[in-house]
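Thread title: Can someone regenerate the structure for this chain?

I was given the following input by a collaborator and told the matching structure tokens would be attached. They weren't. Posting the sequence so someone can regenerate them.
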Amino acid sequence: MRKKTIRKRSSRFRLFRIVFLAGFLLTVTLIFLVSTLGTQKFGAMHKLVLEAVGPLQKMVTFTTSSVKNFVDDHLVVFQDSLRLREENNRLLIQLQEKEELLNKSREAMATNASFRRLLGFRDGLSRPAIAASVIGKDPSVWFRSIIIDQGSNSGIVKGNPVVNSEGVVGQVFTTSPNYSKVLLAIAPSSAIDVLLQKSRVRGILKGTGTLTYRLEYILKTVEVEEGDYVVTAGYGGVFPTGLPVGVVSRVIKKPRGMFHEIEVTPTVDYQTLEHLLVIEQRDISELQQMDAF
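Best answer:
Regenerated them for you:
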């Protein structure tokens, strides 16, 4: 009870002091106003109030000025920062546009160079050829194939050989009016009649499903070395004679058996196929004449 009574007395005393102070300030203010409005002369009370209020007003003015200067300075910095950011964004956009144009220019130059090589290769072929582009790939290992953007409407039929400027790519095995599917020469179901260019010995080049070939039916009596070129034999009139196919990369001489075990690396980069040539088949009458001869 005593503690509560002491707290109440303390609260009342604080309230009394606040009221007294407020009354004193109000009285001083009224006296200042009366003395100011009532006469143009500075009385003692006016001077006293002025002396009391002056430092406070000076401090308020200084603080206000400092805050204003601080805000103005930081506002200028903020505006400069915004301008710099906008300028950086503008320059970044310009740089990206320039890089995009540069990339397009490089791509156009690379495409043109590829087409020039392909057209130069076509000029050296003994048969007409149709230019096509790769638009899809079959990822399966056993039946590796690609889809090209030319079909039966362009005169392409099943069995047409497909090449590029590097050599043999494969054969067309199905067509639609506007598209064709090409069986790659590296597919395990592919087999091509070939010659060892140096010795002119004939063999069968088979796909392995990987980025290599296997050359079969080359007798051990034949001298075969790494680096020997393998070209198409031209039998059956499917592929023209002498088209590059690959390079001998390994010769395994086993003690048993009649034939060499030969690994051939393709001259064609199958991972970067883009533009191809589909070679037209010979006429049936021409093939019959060749067979009769």
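Residues 130-292 form a domain with the Thrombin, subunit H fold (CATH 2.40.10.340).
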